[in-house]
Amino acid sequence: xxxxxxxxxxxxxxxxxxxxxxxxxxxxxxGRAYVGVTTTGIFCRLTCPARxxxxxxxxxxxxxxxxxxxxxxxxxxxxPTGPEAEGHATVTALIAALHADPERRWSESDLTGLGHDPSxxxxxxxxxxxxxxxxxxxxxxxxxGLKSITxxxxxxxxxxxAGFDSASGFRTAFTRLFGHPPHQMRQPADLRADWIxxxxxxxxxxxxxxxxxxxxxxxxxxxxxxxxxxxxFVGGRIGLGRTAVTDRTExxxxxxFAGDRPLFDLDLHLHGTDFQRRVWQGLRQIPAGDxxxxxxxxxxxxxxSATRAVANANANNRIAIVIPCHRVIGAxxxxxxxxxxxxxxxxxxxxxRSYGVAA
Length: 359
Prior knowledge:
Arc Repressor Mutant, subunit A, 4-stranded mixed sheet, globular
């Protein structure tokens, strides 16, 4: 049986609430609602910077496909058919520059030299990614150092590859990310940590020979805390490198983003309480392209009164995407907090809606 995963108007809040969200450019509605303006024939995100239309000229849609089917064209300012960050020319230009030269050591003077206002860049990246451009660039350089260490390069070579002038600066950045100084992670270990690139940014994967233990976006603020907790669970036995499980994870993530894998076939080691593991297993039962509220998830695991505890367990998931905590949204259909950033949550839901999963 084929299940239609497309959201309908019945899923949307009432028009007054949607117009209020449009008026305030509320980011909570990103990826959940779109407005078509009858006087222009254009449809937009509710966060679009364009002039606000009159209420009687607005039509509301739950997806870009619905708006297009109704005859509306996508706005050229807010790009409602792509990820939110694609609608910001400065963001897309700088991300392209970063991908072209990940080892470059960026400064605010570099941004000024390219004609950008550093404060504008800082606000735009914080809004879209939760980090500044310079912080993202620093993480990219750290990735180059990690690659060098994993290949067995000397620490000074890894430091230089990462573009750090001082060994102490490299050690501090590395320790902030992993919770351990780099020399400790070169020791023999049961679990190996390595970097995986995805269309939504770098991820740290930690695996042993049989199971995946952690998969997190590298810019998640809670990543160091999660790595330290995992280190405590396994007695500090985490080193650098990869296993066959890491390779399978990387391959399956690539298939997922290409639209070829709605389900992951990976053995997972879940470090948490019995309740947390039940929640995480419940998340894995939500089909790709579908969503649930926290209350619905609580009911699905047999504890309908534990909505708040379910939300907390969702936030403590340490295996992103594979355990799809991004599929949980607010009861009113809005996007709620996602530790990897709401722009990623929006994009993940958009990717999964392309599947048309068969039950």
